[in-house]
Amino acid sequence: MKSKKICVWSGKRGGFGALTPTMRAIQAHEALELTLVVTDQHLYDQFGRTVREVEDQFSVAATIDMEQSGDSNEERARAVGLCLQRSVDVLADLAPDVLLVIGDRGEVFAACIAAHNMRIAIAHVQGGDLSGSLDEPVRHAITKLSHIHFPSTEQSAERIRRMGEEPWRIHVAGDTHIDQILLGSATGEGELRRRFDLDRSEPFLLVLQHSDSTVPGESPAQIEATLAGLAAIGMRTMLVYPCSDQGYEGIIDGLEGARGQPGVSVHQNIPAPDFIGLQKIAGALVGNSSAGLIEAPYFQLGAVNVGERQIGRERAANVIDVPYDAAAISAAIQRVLNDGDFKTAMAATTPPFGDGTSYRRITETLADISVDERMLNKRMSY
After folding, report:
1. Which domain holds residue 212?
2. Single pTM value for the model
3. Which of 57, 108, 277, 353 could disulfide-link to 101, CB 3.0 to 4.6 Å?
4. Alpha helix (H) ranges present in 102-204?
């Protein structure tokens, strides 16, 4: 029997880590064949050129340089357009049966537009989430282009149904970010403390703040508020570079301005196993990364969610929402670190994002589906 070729599309470190167990399961499945395309910030030196991390684990079939040279709306739009144009040639050459994508990124949307016009089936992981900023409409647009849906939760699945997607296309899988956590892929504490110069007796803060792409010009003031809140705490602090959304330069400039301050380290990239391990031992996760809402509760790690990038997103009891205000950020960090009632409530809440076996559900579904006219010819359900 001919293997079904599954093309995974990866543009950033978080999505790659989240799909790593699924890609390994695809490789191991006798009815499936994995091919991997890498693009966007994986290829930029400014973000740590994480394609090297990818190549350490998988063979890369193709790369697409989006040639994004700045953080303006215009630069991002041009980069996404170039990605769309180059995606056509890559998909034509690889000829996959299914394009497997995750999330809400522009480079993913570009690939889905190409695949849609080339009659390639699209399977979408993490559809139906609410995620704020410019990303959320992109996520829902990808859903409408997709033929198979792997939402993380029942809430997200219901949103997909309300978009008119036929129920047989929807398979609640759990969030793939949890797979790598519960499979035990985290780097050990001793190694992490050596690698990142973390004193065993000293707690630390892990900080990952992206720009809010709806107001990219405000990113310098936003990161300034967060850094001021962190400075008031005075703890060992690890600052991680953002993704390549509009306004990222303002965030990076702020982080680099803090480099060299006592107790502060700045990191272009932290590999997924290390980032998972750091969440296990951190005092708090600060910023606006989805990791604070999705991954952190599995470690009973309190997350200070700054601003509106994750507005409305499903979460557990570990999250404290604050505005871009230094005093509010500082107070929330203190609450995460010291409030016994908050810690009790966090420990008593079961996270809603699954049991760490979404990779199995996704892989088996991909193996079972038929990519035929019924699959490719979508209809509204009402």
Report:
1. 189-348
2. 0.94
3. 108
4. 106-117, 135-145, 154-162, 176-182, 189-195
